[in-house]
Amino acid sequence: MPQAPSQKIGEERKVNIRTMRSDIDTLLKTAKSSLVQILSAEAKKEVPRPGGIKTGEYRKFTVIGLVSLGLAAAGLISFWWFSTPVGPPVETHKKLIPMAPLFAIESSRTIEIKIQDRQQFLKLIADSLGEIERAGTIKRIIIKASDGPQERFVTVSDFFNFYRIQAPKTLVEQLTEEPMFFFYYGDSGVRFGMAAKSRDADRTLRDAILWEDTLGREIYPLLFTSDPPAENAFFEDRTYRNIDWRLAKLFPEKDLGIAYTVFPARNIFVLTTGKESMEVMINRLFDAR
């Protein structure tokens, strides 16, 4: 018996009805669409909705929903971003770089101390002195001192204070730049030396001459010997390569005493503990000009 026309039309309509779920399943199978793309595609379809909502109104509500979803997502992202705890800034300390040597050297050693720890300083200097080096070698001693949270290079004043040396204040004030400490390994033994730029060569030389009355006793710890010095030692003028310098031979039988000068070409004050070491210093200062 043939079906009534109304019944046939109802069945065809039932077959052709499309749902949002079926369309989403199809999109997921055919393309890698995002949630926004799926919702946007669905909003473009003209599918009747119950309750008498027209297609244009449905699109309007869908767009509003998408915008609301986007704003909510942005809010969540912002909350996560700004609520993430940020650690304190990492403090970076500049690496201390010593000045270039004032003259040629063969080796160097860096020691690090606490500015209040005198015993540590004396121990490390003595250890540096005891290291074996080839004859004719100059070894520079770079001394870094931690003064609380700060780190710096030892000054002339610091160095003299470690050895309880009472140098004239005016002399120390002239030696403003970073000093250079060293050991010279000569044929007669190891000799201490110090070199530093002076702001005023004439005043530095004058202050050193005025210091000569007590200089022998003050510098004695830098001789690194337990032998008593001669009681009648005195300073005398010496000249080497037209450079005038002063020498006190505290031990007549060996090259061990106090020698100092101000190298005029560069205003460098030099203090050593031997005749040979002073002449080597003058040679190297000429070569470094």
Q: Uncertain runs with pLDDT below 50, 5 residues or more?
A: 1-6, 8-15
Q: End-to-end distance, in Å? A: 124 Å
Number of helices: 10
What is the total domain count?
2
How many β-strand runs? 9
Major sheet summary line:
9 strands, mixed
Write down the Rg.
44 Å
Structural class: alpha+beta
Shape: elongated
Order of helix and strand elements from N to C terminus: HHHHEHEEHHEEHHEEEEH
Q: What is the mean predicted local confidence, pLDDT?
A: 81
Helix share, percent: 40-55%
Share in β-strands: 15-25%
Describe, in plain words, how this protein is organized in 3D.
The chain has 289 residues and is an alpha+beta fold. It has two domains: 5-83, no CATH class; 107-287, no CATH class. Helices cover 41% and strands 22% of the residues. It is built from ten helices and nine strands. It has helices at residues 5-16, 20-30, 35-43, 55-83, 118-130, 156-162, 169-174, 201-210, 212-219, 275-287; strands at 107-114, 137-147, 150-153, 180-186, 189-197, 235-240, 243-249, 257-263, 268-272. Strands 1, 2, 3, 4, 5, 6, 7, 8 and 9 form a nine-stranded mixed sheet that branches. It is elongated. Residues 1-6 and 8-15 have low confidence and may be disordered.
Question: How would the blueprint of this fold be written?
Answer:
Blueprint: H1 5-16, H2 20-30, H3 35-43, H4 55-83, E1 107-114, H5 118-130, E2 137-147, E3 150-153, H6 156-162, H7 169-174, E4 180-186, E5 189-197, H8 201-210, H9 212-219, E6 235-240, E7 243-249, E8 257-263, E9 268-272, H10 275-287
Q: What's the quick description here?
A:
With 289 residues, the protein is α+β, with helices and mostly antiparallel strands. The protein has two domains: 5-83, no CATH class; 107-287, no CATH class.
